[in-house]
Amino acid sequence: MAASLTIDLEAEGKQFGELRIPRSTNEAAWTNLVVPVVTVARGEGSTVLLLGGTHGDEYEGQVALLNLARELDPADISGRVVIVPCLSGEASRAGTRRWPDGPDLNRSFPGDPEGSLVEQLASARASWWYRPSSEAASRQRARSASLATASRTCSATSASSAASRSCAATPSSCAPPRLRTT
Asked: pTM for the whole thing?
């Protein structure tokens, strides 16, 4: 089974949930690795991802993000904040930098959805939290199309020497549009 998220990353307001990665161990035939996730969202805007506890023995970030998750009000932001206070709970509970079975989560990216538990967590981080919202994905596709059009126009214009001089004189007419973060 694949990893699952118990909250809707697109929903507005404040949500507390978890990322669940199925696993089977000697202690339990069927369990989940559970990673806490909090989202705070309101309106349109950028998405900020805050990760703590990649190394289990680094508690300051975990505590700071837990406090932020409790205190952050959707009315205070425009966009979305995704907070993962403790990405590496196994290492945090053990009080170690690495997971008890050896791997360093920070050296496991981009991960593998079919690999070890650490590799699955690294893969889930990329697939769940770094994917753009549907609206952002639409904007990115439009920007990519605009860049492709500008590139073709500049290439076609640059074919003649007179046009090349024109391009050199007015580089903004041939340069791809600047990307804005929203």
From this structure: 0.65
